[in-house]
Amino acid sequence: MLGVASNLTNQNVLVGIQNNTSTYNSSLSQSQTRRHKGDGSGYIQWKTVTVNGKQYSQPWYHYEFWNNRERFIKSSCYIPKQLLTQIIQLDANKAPVQEILNLLGVII
Asked: How far apart are CA 9 and CA 96, in angstroms?
């Protein structure tokens, strides 16, 4: 493994880092930074749960809906492993919270 790494020059590594950074920045600029007003707010949080002395990380989706400056609903929902990649993608694209909750099976 060290032989392979020694064949790389610093310039090649820097070019690779610059290419990855520009790709990352362009993908950020294409996605929205906020949801549309009235679509609710939500985010993914990883919680550590201890079961029988073992610790596990679990993804949870926290969401809120507001109506006339008053919080209407505030809750959270566990994200099953098989839906995690879809939920991460929808959240990154700032899809309406209701769409994410429908995928999770939450009815509001």
From this structure: 46
d(CA 10, CA 82): 40
Which candidate, 39, 83, 41, 38, places its Cα nearest to that of 58? 83
Q: Which residue has the higher pLDDT, 46 or 14?
A: 46
Report pLDDT digits (tens) over 55-94: 999 999 999 988 888 888 999 999 999 999 999 999 999 8
Decide: 108 and 91 in contact? Cβ < 8 Å: no
CA separation for the pair 50, 36 (Å, rounded): 37
CA atoms within 13 A on the CB side of 22: 5
C-alpha to C-alpha distance for 87 and 93, rounded to whole angstroms = 10
What's the predicted TM-score (pTM) here? Answer: 0.64
Query: What is the DSSP-derived secondary structure letter of residue 80?
Result: -
What is the enclosing helix (H) or strand (E) of 89? helix 84-92
Measured distance CA(23)–CA(68) in Å, rounded: 40
